Amino acid sequence: MARKIAFINYKGGVGKTSCLVNIGAVLAQQGKRVLLVDLDAQSNSSIWLMRVDRWTELHTKGKGSLFSIFVPGESTLGDIRVRDVVTERDGRALVPGLDLIPTGFNLIDLEQEYAPPDKEPPYLRFWKQLKEIEADYDYILFDCPPNVLRASQCGLFCANEVIVPANPDALSLIGFTLITGKLLQFNERSVTYRATGMGPQALINGVLFNSVKTATDIEVPKMRMQFRVNQFRNQKKISSRARIFHSMIRDAIVVRRAVTLGLPVLSMENEGVIEDYRSVASELEEMNSQPAPSPLHSFHQQTATAHE
Ligand SMILES: Nc1ncnc2c1ncn2[C@@H]1O[C@H](COP(=O)(O)OP(=O)(O)OP(=O)(O)O)[C@@H](O)[C@H]1O
Ligand SMILES: [Mg+2]
Questions:
Q1: Atom of ligand 1 nearest to the CA of 13
Q2: For residue 292, is pLDDT > 70?
C-alpha cells in the first residue's frame, strides 16, 4: 500500500515544496515509485518540475491540470498525471519513477467559485480518483498550501501521515501549533465520510527543520519545538510516534538554483545538501518499520527529551 504523506505548515515559505520535491526525487532514485501531487494554486512544484514551457502549455489549455478533475466528465487523476516528470531538454527521463499530478493557477477557483455538482466535498471526488491509481506507487506526497481549504483538504483526507517542514524560528512554531489545531478540526468535520471507510485520518507524525544555516545555533528553537511536540503528543493531538526528524536540511543556495533549472537537487552537481535529503528519506523509511511506542516507553522518552 502506498504511504500517503501530506507536507503542510500553516506558515508559508518554510520549504514544503522544496522538501517534497527533493525527498521525492531521492526516493525515486532509490527505486521507489513516487507520485507528487501539487495541491497549491501557486503551482510551484508543477512549474519547477515541468519547467515553464511545458507547464504554460498545460495551463493555457486549462486541461490536464488538477482543477479539471473536479469538472464532471473532463478528466481523471489517471488522465492528467505526468509520468517521469523530470526530463532533459530532449525529453529523456532524468528521474524515472517520479510522477506528478500538475496544477495550474485555476486551482484557486476550487476555493470559492466552484459548486460541487454532487454536493459532496471536493476531497471525496479526489479520494475516489486517487484510489484508482494509488496501487501504482510506494509513496504519494501531497504539496499543500499553508491552509486547510478545499485543495489542501484533498491531501489531508487521503494522507495517512503528515510532515510539517519548519524553519528554526518562532513563526514556524506558531505555524505548527495552528496546523495541529486546524487538522484536528478538519478530521472532526470529515468524520462522517471516514465512518464509511473513506480516508485514513492522518495525524502529524514528523517535524522537519529546513534551511538550517551551518554557523547558527538552533538549540533554542529546536528545544521549543520539542517541548510543543511532547505537549501535543501527551494531549493526543498528534501521532504517538510524532517526533522531530534527526536529520535537518541545511540552507544551501543550490536549492534555489535547482528551481530555476527545473531539476531536483540530486540531478545537479554533487552538493552536500543532497546528503541531507537522503538522510531524511532514510529516516522516513525507518519510521515505517518501527513499531508504535508503548505508552510507558513514550512517557519516559517524552520526559527525558522535555528535560534535555
Ligand atoms: N534548504 C534550503 N536552502 C536554501 N533555500 C531554500 C531551502 N529550502 C527552500 N528554500 C527556498 O526558500 C523559498 C521557499 O521555499 P518553498 O517554496 O519550498 O517553501 P513553501 O513552504 O513550499 O512555500 P509556500 O508556502 O509559498 O508554498 C524558495 O525560494 C526556496 O528555493
Ligand atoms: Mg510550496
A1: 23
A2: no
